[in-house]
Each structure stands twice: as structure tokens, then as C-alpha cells.
Amino acid sequence: AREKQGISPSRPPRKRVLIIPLDCGLLAEAIKLAGMLRENGIPSEVEVMGRNLSRALSDGSRRDITHAVIIGPKEFSEGKIVFRDMRGKVQEDIRIGDLPAKICPKSSSHRS
Hints:
Strand content: 15-25%
Number of helices: 4
Number of strands: 5
Shape: globular
Oligomer: single chain
Order of helices and strands: EHEHEHEEH
């Protein structure tokens, strides 16, 4: 019905992920994680400017980032990351391998 009225069907907002390494030693891991997300069709970018967490999250929110992944040394050593929903401002620790399915449940099967 919407098409007949010349209105395009509404689409869910496109997911965009910002990966924030809290330690410069974790930058390579952040880049690998971005590659994994991109392989699953999830647009992602890595915070490389060295801004503090608050500033990086604020910038991500301003640029309409839907999710943030925070890589801290302690969590990473346990095989986990902090996953933050930027719209709901809710965050939780999750296993690294669970990230694609957490962002887009349909992307849980890898395309490799």
C-alpha cells in the first residue's frame, strides 16, 4: 500500500559499529575484529585517533553509530569485549566470537 502512495517502505536503520581499543597495544586486534565484522556484512570502523573513551563514544553518537565495541586489556585477556548499544545506552560483556550474531542475528553464519 505504501508503494502505491509513492512512499518507500521503511527499512530498519543500518547498523554501524565503532571499535574502540582502550590500549594502543590492542589496535591490531581492533582491526582484526573490524575485518571479521566486515566479512559478515557489518560496516565497522576503528577508533585510531587515540581519543579517550568518553570522547570516542560521543563522536560515535554524533555520527549515528548504532553499536560500540570496547576492547579493554582485562576483558580481551578473557576472550571478551564490551558491547554497547548506542541508542539504548546499554552495555554488556560478550565473547568475541559472539559479536556478529549479537549485532545482526542473521549474520551468525560466517561467509567464509
